[in-house]
Amino acid sequence: MSGDQLGRMHLERAAKLRPWDEWPSGRYIEDVDEAALWDFVERGRQNGRILSKFETSVDVLEAFGLMSGAELTNAAAVLFCPSQDVRLKMAVFENHARTEVLDLQQVQGTVFSLIDAAERYVLANTRRRLIIKDGEPREEVPEIPRQAVREAVTNAFAHMDWTLGGAVLVEIYHDDIEIDSPGWFIEGQNPDEHLSGLSRSSRTRNSLIARTLYRSGDIESEGTGIPRIKMLCDEAGIRIEYVHTPDGARLIMRRDDAFMEESPIESASEDAGTEDTATDTPHSQHDVTPAVATWRDLARLGNAVGHPLKA
């Protein structure tokens, strides 16, 4: 047996005795991103899940079981301490052979900052419909529901096997979006049963991380995350499925060109205004309508929205 295999066996044995997210991390209160921590507290207060008042950062972390003696737990470290070990890779590919990369980004930080980054990336590199009605602010309808993207990425970080290392991957193709997380579902958890609503189990390998994300309102309890992602995607005409990969779990959101079924410009009501499918770039600046554009056209349009796609 190799040294790597022995090390892996040791980690698995230790995680069974005490979950990884409860282990002391070797990080200390000085390593905490104070803004991220107090933003977490404020979100918890707004949703009614954090009621206590705190004087110091230590008070917050101790109240929620995020300290192990003088050290932060691993849960606190990945949530509130910027680190090169908390990673997100994002890419746009021309095809599933992955032979042409239109854009590639890798970022590190806290789990909370990476969730935000992934949400922005998907929204910037997929289509959205603009609904413009007279006398009203324009409404943007993303191709993939914003909350479904956020929930999916949050789940990927919350339930990943951190002992494996690696990164959460967000990959965008012309026909789907794929979110990869290290580690498959734990024993007794079946993604198909969650998608169908048969299972409502909320068991996870990272209970402390999950409880903390619940307090801030970033996830819900009682195993409702996957059914909610499915509900949001069903409403938008997006099919989803989980696939077991050699490295873990992959959530696939099928892009069946729902926007392509309609004309790029339609009546939002008989006389009220128009409905338009676009990126953030106004049509007047380009000669391509994203609703009927090729993937390379979309790459060219992406240069104007702060996430340039390299064709």
Overview of this structure, please?
The protein has 311 residues and is an alpha+beta fold. It folds into 2 domains: 3-80, no CATH class; 83-258, Heat Shock Protein 90 (2-Layer Sandwich). It is built from 10 helices and 12 strands. It has helices at residues 3-17, 34-46, 57-63, 74-80, 111-124, 146-159, 191-196, 207-215, 225-235, 295-302; strands at 67-68, 71-72, 83-93, 101-109, 128-133, 139-142, 168-172, 176-182, 239-245, 248-254, 265-269, 273-278. A 6-stranded mixed sheet has the order 4-3-7-8-10-9. The chain has a 4-stranded antiparallel sheet with strand order 6-5-12-11, with no helix packed on it. Strands 1-2 form a two-stranded antiparallel sheet. Strand 11 (265-269) and strand 12 (273-278) form a beta hairpin. The longest helix is centred in the first third of the chain and has 15 residues, at 3-17. The protein is globular. The model is unreliable at 262-311 (pLDDT under 50).
